[in-house]
Amino acid sequence: MSASSPVDLHLHSTASDGMLDPAALVAHVAACGVKLMALTDHDTVAGVAAAADAARAHGIGFVAGVELSAAWRGRTIHVLGLALDPANPTLTLALERQQALRNERAERIAARLDAAGAPGTAALATIRAAGSLPTRTHFARELVAAGAAADVAAAFKRWLGSGRPGNVASEWPELTEATGWILAAGGKAAIAHPMRYALSAGARREMCTEFAAAGGHGVEVSTGGGGVHDREQAISLAVRCRLEGSVGSDFHDPSVPWNPPGRLAKLPDSIRPIWSDFQPA
């Protein structure tokens, strides 16, 4: 599939913090004109089978994916695993570990919110009743529903962001270790939204150089919410670090207008698409 094809390799369902269940997500993505998609929920592949079935029904290409939380020099970094085997034993054990970390962090977030006067325990109970792996975005939505914040952005600013009462760090695996899990599952690894991390340009290059040395394949060049300058910097990063390019909206919610699936800038000819050798289901 060429770089000019409608591709979206960064999408979320209700298996993590998306608003649409896997089948509904695929229907939405297909209606947006996407021809190749990946489901990349946070630290889980629970929605992959249903999404794959729906993609076949809609006649669009699908590859199994995941978005892993990792750490580099003390900062949380997200790495996408694309076209991987979701049943791989190494990946299965790794995701069990990731999910335990998420659940432990959720308990601590809930307790801290309770102590600060926000309904943390009640929020967590609702999140778990829905069957989703808890994320901070889930807590933000529940705080809005409870009247503790005007919107999700306000919830992060008041309760969940850096230095706020509900902010809890997690001991995520090192980026190189998380990359190894993706490789073990036969997938390709790509750094998600590289310009969102609070890193200098030099540190960003060092991160991607280490990532490539560990077997990482690519970097997300076009992503939802990124401006022209971000894309130009990501292109430069991919070229300098000799990484392939990925494109993905980071789509979560159909009510958010600024990052619909498939409306992403094409990769320049100078960058090899990470999906060039994918074999979609």
How would you characterize this protein structure?
- Strands 1-2-3-4-5-6-7 form a 7-stranded mixed sheet.
- It is built from 9 helices and 7 strands; from the N terminus they run βαβαββαααααβαβαβ.
- Helices cover 41% and strands 16% of the residues.
- The chain is globular and about 55 Å long.
- Helix 4 crosses helix 5 (136-145).
Main features:
281 residues, alpha/beta, seven-stranded mixed sheet, globular
Order the strands across the largest sheet as they lie in space. 1-2-3-4-5-6-7
Let me know the number of strands: 7
| CATH architecture call of the domain at 7-94 and 175-248 | Alpha-Beta Barrel
Helix-strand makeup class: alpha/beta
Tell me the β content: 15-25%
Q: What count of helical segments does DSSP give?
A: 9
What is the average per-residue confidence, as pLDDT, rounded to a whole number? 94
Order of helices and strands: EHEHEEHHHHHEHEHE
Shape: globular
Q: Which spans have pLDDT < 50 for at least 5 consecutive residues?
A: none
Cα end-to-end separation: 14 Å
Helical amount among residues, as a percent range? 40-55%
For the largest beta-sheet, the strand count, sense and barrel status come to:
7 strands, mixed
What's the name of the CATH homologous superfamily of the domain at 7-94 and 175-248? Answer: Metal-dependent hydrolases
Oligomer designation: single chain
Taking Cα atoms only, what radius of gyration do you get, to the nearest Å? 18 Å
What is the C-level CATH assignment of the domain at 7-94 and 175-248?
Answer: Alpha Beta
Query: According to CATH, what is the topology of the domain at 7-94 and 175-248?
Result: TIM Barrel
